[in-house]
Amino acid sequence: MLNKNSSEQTPTRGIYLLPNLLTTAGLFSGFFAVVSSMNGHFESASIAIFIAMIFDGLDGRVARMTNTQSEFGAEYDSMADMVSFGIAPGLVVYNWALSGMGKFGWLAAFVFVAAAALRLARFNTQVGVADKRYFQGLASPAAAGVIASLVWLGTEYQLAGQDFGIVMGVITIVSGLLMVSNFRYNSFKDVDWKGKVNFIVVLLIVLVFVIVAASPAELLTVIFVLYASSGPFTTIRTVKKLKLEHVVGDDQDAEFKAEDKHINDSEINESNKDK
């Protein structure tokens, strides 16, 4: 009898298949991007990074929908993100534009990779604590999107990446620094995806799909560059006076917390009025 009870209380060993399968697919896409860039197939490498983003967005949502979240899955997802959105973009841009730039080239790529690792580590320590409406610093998939879209755009127009080595090196470094900055980026997690929308919105969504299919490299470049540039503007708009700690430094910033508390208090007051 005791053996039966003890066996019933013993947790089942193993990992959840579906979410970790999606994470593995994202990891494969990131690794494929590295191999493709080494073979000179930069368009395929860039597309692989965007495919990794799709899998990265799916694995967490599938895990929550199927109630299959686990610590193993969270850690595995973080490691896969490091490959797909840290190492892969760094090596892709290095092979395309920075390999002929000497120390500046590989150091620029290293700054991006190291920044992605720091960004992911900081994000993992802030789960359940940070304001879900904003990302602190540019998210690693978005930074990877900036690099991948520019490489894809340059390849589509048959530009020699080595001719733009300095420009791409600066963009790579800036993208890395934005990841470890304190700039606020909208996470879009407060959007009500289950709510109803006007029929015109559906038509606009169809139009967006048509534009993406017609000119994917151009549109993705515009979207990711604009999003990467939005962080400083969002930060300046949400603080009374811009300080050094709003740009970089300790994430335990009092003024950010004061702004958040003011916003939350306002939301509570509005809800009380409605009642």
Attribute tags:
single chain; 275 residues; mainly alpha; Four Helix Bundle (Hemerythrin (Met), subunit A); two-stranded antiparallel sheet; 10 helices; globular
Give average pLDDT, whole number.
Answer: 84
Poorly predicted regions: 261-275
H/E element sequence: HHHHHEHHEHHH
CATH topology of the largest domain: Four Helix Bundle (Hemerythrin (Met), subunit A)
Q: Whole-number radius of gyration?
A: 21 Å
How many domains? The number is 2
Task: Calculate the terminal CA-CA distance, rounded to whole Å.
Answer: 55 Å
Largest sheet: 2 strands, antiparallel
Side-by-side strand order of the widest sheet: 1-2
* Helicity, as a percent range: over 70%
- What is the total tally of β strands? 2
What structural class results from the helix and strand content? mainly alpha
- Say which CATH homologous superfamily of the largest domain is assigned: CDP-alcohol phosphotransferase transmembrane (TM) domain
Instruction: Supply the CATH architecture of the largest domain.
Output: Up-down Bundle
Number of helices: 10
Main CATH class of the largest domain: Mainly Alpha
The 3D shape can be described as: globular
Q: Strand fraction band?
A: under 5%
